[in-house]
Design brief:
This protein is α+β, with helices and mostly antiparallel strands. It folds into five domains: 207 residues, Immunoglobulin-like, CATH 2.60.40.1730; 252 residues, Neutral Protease, domain 2, CATH 1.10.390; 105 residues, Immunoglobulin-like (Sandwich), CATH 2.60.40; 124 residues; 118 residues. The protein has 27 helices and 29 strands. The strands form seven sheets. Strands 5-4-8-2-1-11-14-13 form an eight-stranded mixed beta sheet. It has a five-stranded mixed beta sheet with strand order 16-17-18-20-19, with helices on one face. The radius of gyration is 28 Å and the shape is globular. Keywords: Aminopeptidase, Hydrolase, Metal-binding, Metalloprotease, Protease, Zinc.
Length: 854
């Protein structure tokens, strides 16, 4: 199947030539329960006008069976993922109708179909961003070509049958099952016409989904909307009430703050398995990963993360769905804003007031790491084609973009920012827009120079670094300045700098403007203040920059970070500090052992389990990647012993105990000490008081024991029968192939490269087993073979799965540096693959750099 790559130039040509009116779609998935059926019939009738006689329609289907233009049969010219239309009448109303066969997906792209092992039922859902609507129906696949959609779905009558809009009619007919020969009822459901909508935002789902519902009424009683949450039947018990409560709270927030009534009729939230990402903002039918349904005891941190995602997607109903970026170079115009809104609305409308702390201490790590790769790019990036767009759903577009918006809000004021957004929605509703359009709306509410600001922040890449420069005389500050450095020109920052005394209590905070291009900014108000024990730049996390510490501050943090206590303000300060320490470690500016020891000493005292869990994970990463090989085993043993001690002392049943347990299992899996095996068995046997043996604890412990070759296959089978679910089946696969044998590594290396052999969830489990603790000696031998099969991997798999396979098999060895250069120098490498390889190569290079800096 062709993976035709639409270019921006082609999209611009079609945008100028076309005036779209409507799509009339009919998807016949009545035989979807028969998994021998690989494709389903689709009819797409498109109404439009054109100024060009030669056009192409995008379609990644299996076949085109008929084509008519204005009801007259036409020759089918279908090749390379496109249906070419010739000699079209110009400046006339046209109707092009295409009958095709589209393929069911196992990759999470297009119309994904899965078989639930728990009850034998089949389920379908779609995922189309950025350009996979063409996998389902023939269309003009680009965000600025909006149209009204009229959708019909034919499916088994007993199923839930869903699309973006509410159902308006249902016709029942009889059909003979293609697998059993039995006669069954089929429902053909017609849905209400959509408002103007981009193709990637259309959405379809069908299956025996279970649901909950409630009605939301706007605070001013001007609008009512039916809210539903849905999941496959075997997961119905985990559709907790909080999901709809949070949905209603979000609707209140956005109704009041956006001043544009929710425009999409209904609001369904459907939780689906084998999903490639966290969620997708399809208006009226939002899809979420099923991992947000808590089969296992969740921490408050997990609840907060789910809340953030629910509200992130809801904000898209306006930022992205109501007003859509014209092209993917403005992808950030929806994703950065939604990332910002997810945190801001969480903090202002739900109980999870720590949202900005979690952002500062966790999500921004993603941004800083991505922004220092050789493939970093400006927030407003150059996107030549849709494959490049896929790669930009990254830490720049999401986390850095949101951090920069947070700086913009601090720069112009929160009320002014929301006022500009309200004007933007009113001016561009149901249309496509650019960032210049948003700036025009913001200019009416601030006298700040937004053009200079946007050029500095949105059109450059890489983080600034802010470092304190202090002179102390007789225990008093003689001078205090902030040095700003960057690879290019530094950016403007409005930032808070706080001083803390010997008890780590905040004594002074200065609101400082750092001008673009400046090297050092002097804080005159600090002169004469008592010499601080800690200087914290970016207190409150208002800007995006790497933060450094002077020697006195670093000494204070190493010995006493957990003494910085208080309320929400101090918690956010600790988040900023933890992120800064991690950046210093990644940059080789602070010894990895110092960071690891600081985490072990101070992170267990964190009240916020997001900060606790993030830093535990960073410490584990540092042990594995930042220590020289000869020192790793000793540190692994030390860290594993410490986590076991923490686990046995943690409050039974607490969030802290669960967070520690997850890290303890990971460290015990990797420790060279024999005690790791017995301690893992103690966890699995239920010897830790208060620790619930939920599915995730059972599977992670079982997989850890398998990696140590310390669990029987009979135990694996017991776990499989205990968790007879689709998720359990994938977890079992991961455990089965985690045993440290050459045969297992060979099997995984070969199997994940077979197209369609496994679902995306199973591929991820197999890749995790390939890199299980203690596997390096067994996997190192695949390094040269990896580079020989790279082209085949990329050519034979959908881009999402290919991305995971390449990253999962990439050798974490020094030889990979030269091998990558050699591969990239031979022939024309697809741009998306080039980017993946450069990022993998740079991760290895950074690991070696940090090791050598110790």
């Amino acid at each position: 199947m062709s993976q035709a790559n639409l270019t921006h130039i082609e999209a611009q040509f079609r945008a100028e030539a076309l005036t779209l009116s409507a799509y009339h779609l009919h998807l016949d998935i009545s035989q979807a329960a028969n998994h021998e059926e690989k494709a389903y019939p689709v009819t797409s009738r498109i109404e439009f006008r054109t100024t060009e006689p030669e056009l192409f329609i995008d379609y990644l289907g299996a076949d085109v069976t008929a084509l008519t233009i204005n009801n007259e049969p036409a020759d089918v010219d279908f090749r390379d993922g496109r249906i070419y239309l010739h000699d079209l009448p110009i400046n006339e109303d046209l109707t092009v109708e295409i009958a095709g066969l589209s393929s069911y997906s196992r990759s999470g792209q297009g119309l994904h179909r899965m078989h639930d092992t728990a009850d034998g039922k089949s389920y379908l859902y779609s995922h189309l961003e950025p350009s996979d609507a063409r996998r389902i129906f023939p269309c003009f696949e680009q965000p600025d070509l909006k149209a009204r959609f009229h959708v019909k779905l034919s499916a088994p009558a007993e199923w839930e049958i869903l699309s973006n809009q509410p159902e308006i009619s249902r016709k029942i007919s009889s059909a003979t099952s293609s697998d059993s020969g039995e006669v069954a009822e089929v429902a053909t459901v017609e849905f209400a016409e959509t408002p103007l909508l981009s193709t990637y935002l259309t959405s379809f789902a069908a299956g025996p989904y279970a649901s909950k519902k409630q009605t939301w009424t706007a605070p001013d009683e001007s609008l009512t909307v039916e809210l539903r949450s849905l999941a496959r039947a075997s997961m119905a018990d985990f559709l907790d009430d909080e999901i709809l409560e949070l949905t209603a709270q979000g609707m209140d927030f956005f109704h009041e703050n956006f001043d544009f009534p929710y425009p999409w009729g209904k609001y369904d939230s459907i939780f689906v398995p084998e999903y490639n990402l966290g969620a997708m903002e399809n208006p009226g039918l939002v899809t979420f990963t099923e991992s947000y349904l808590f089969r296992s005891a969740p921490t408050r941190s997990q609840h907060a993360a789910r809340t953030n995602t629910i509200l992130h997607e809801m904000s898209h109903m306006w930022f992205g769905d109501l007003v859509t970026p014209q092209w993917w170079d403005d992808l950030w115009l929806k994703e950065s804003f939604a990332e910002y809104m997810g945190a801001d609305s969480s903090g202002h409308s739900t109980q999870y007031v720590e949202a900005w702390t979690n952002f500062a201490g966790s999500r921004k790590n993603w941004a800083y790491a991505q922004d220092q790769l050789p493939t970093t790019h400006p927030i407003k990036a150059e996107i030549p084609d849709v494959d490049a767009a896929r790669q930009n759903f990254d830490g720049i577009t999401y986390a850095k973009g949101a951090a920069v918006l947070k700086q913009l809000v601090h720069y112009v004021g929160r009320d002014e920012f929301y006022s500009g957004a309200r004007d933007y929605f009113k001016a561009h509703a149901f249309a496509a827009a650019t960032f210049d359009d948003l700036l025009d709306s913001l200019r009416n509410h601030t006298d700040r120079d937004l053009d200079t600001w946007s050029d500095a922040w949105l059109k450059t890449s890489g983080p600034d670094t802010l470092t304190p420069e202090i002179t102390v005389t007789d225990d008093a500050i003689e001078s205090l300045g902030i040095a700003a450095t960057a690879e290019g020109a530094t950016r403007p920052h409005r930032v808070s700098i706080s001083l803390f005394d010997a008890s780590l209590a905040r004594t002074d905070t200065f609101d400082v403007d750092i001008a673009a291009g400046s090297s050092t900014t002097t804080i005159a108000e600090a002169q004469g203040k008592p010499a601080p024990s800690l200087i914290l730049i970016n207190d409150g996390d208002h800007t995006y920059a790497k933060v450094r510490f002077d020697d006195t501050s670093l000494e204070s943090l190493r010995g006493r970070l957990s003494e910085l206590r208080g309320g929400a303000e101090e918690e956010l300060s600790r988040a900023v500090i933890w992120t800064a320490l991690w950046n210093m470690t990644r940059d080789g500016k602070w010894a990895a052992t110092e960071f690891i020891d600081t985490v072990l000493q101070h992170a267990p005292a964190e009240d916020n389990t997001n900060l606790m869990g993030t830093n535990f994970a960073n410490a584990r990463f540092a042990v594995k990647n930042f220590l020289a090989e000869e020192h790793r085993d000793d540190k692994r043993a030390e860290v594993a012993a410490k986590f076991w001690e923490l686990l046995t002392e943690a409050e039974a049943g607490s969030d802290a105990q669960l967070t520690i347990a997850r890290s303890a299992i990971a460290t015990l899996a990797a420790t060279p000490e024999d005690s790791g095996t017995q301690r893992l068995k103690d966890i699995l046997d239920g010897h830790i008081e208060g620790l619930e043996l939920s599915p995730d604890i059972r599977w992670s412990t079982t997989q850890a024991l398998a990696a140590r070759d310390a669990v029987s296959e009979e135990v694996l089978e017991e776990q499989r029968h205990r968790d007879n679910t689709l998720t359990g089946a994938a977890e079992y696969l991961g455990a089965k192939y985690s045993y440290p044998t050459a045969e297992n590594k060979r099997y995984i290396f070969d199997q994940v490269r077979i197209p369609q052999a496994y679902s995306n969830a199973e591929v991820m489990q197999l890749l995790a087993a390939f890199g299980a603790p203690g596997s390096s000696e067994l996997t190192d031998g695949f390094a040269e073979e990896f580079f020989k099969v790279l082209y085949t991997i990329w050519a034979e798999h959908p881009i999402e799965i290919a991305n995971h396979i390449v990253r999962g098999l990439f050798p974490n060895q020094e030889m990979a540096l030269g091998a990558t250069d050699k591969f990239l120098s031979q022939g024309e490498v697809p741009g998306a693959l080039r980017r993946v390889l450069l990022e993998c190569q740079d991760n290895v290079r950074r690991n070696l750099m940090v090791q050598n800096a110790q």
